[in-house]
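Reply to dn_fold:

You asked what the input looked like. This is it:
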Amino acid sequence: MNRLLASLLATVIFLAPISAPADDTSVVSAGLGDPMLPMIASLAFCRGNALSEGFGGMPVVLSKQVDTLGGFMGDPNGLDPSIFQVKVGPQQRAVQPVCATLAPAVDATERRTVLLIGEFGLGGENGPVTVRVVGDLMATDGTSLQGAKTNNVGEVNGGPSLVMAEVFGPGTIATSQFGDDTRNRFCPSNGTSRVVKLTFSGGVSGPNGAPLADDETAMAAIEILAVTPDGRRTVLNPFALRDDDNDNHLDVCLGEEAKGLQLIRAQVDSHTFYAPQNVPGRAITVQIQ
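and this is what came back:
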């Protein structure tokens, strides 16, 4: 294939809607993941909080990693729920969550997704409308996230959307030696030259909760647009997928062919990555940060 044709193909492949990079301090996405969380899930994520049946769960992705400043009520991953305000329904009734936590996305390169639990309605016209950081919330780089807001809260029946992609070298993100990766957590140290961490709007898995790690269909559904030093465009596919722990992050392991390339965009196909309610996501492209 000649260089011109390859460049045209790489351009055509990336025609899915492109999500713009997040502002320095913003709410990247928010969505009512489940209007009626099972009690066991609420208790697992919100230790020390007074919970009851009937609360919903809302993942909120922030543009920066969050500093919990020692946690809340004995939970090192907990945050004071009064930091957040959700407005619900046509009248935009102000609701304070009963719990705010970074769990389950608590790995060192994650910690930007806050799970809010509270009475957020049942979706549609009676669902959440806005989410705002109204209290003192600090990012790990020392900046304040107070005032970050979104007026675009996702529908309960929507699948997970790709909202962010970050690139890491193998020296800055954990990798694993052969044989010690029992939980499919880290990209293999042998052969990984770059890692692209994908962040979705909510928890993600394969269909019916199937694992994503090294799944051939999932790997084929992820494409990374890259540029060579001489300006040619090329498309890369992962040779492995890791961090498959059902939170909203997934690590894309790129091989030696990614060395020296500028990684520009990440695209995922539709009907490959599913929400916990087994709802498929759509095709979307985001710029790599």
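The chain has three helices and 23 strands.
Hope that clears it up.
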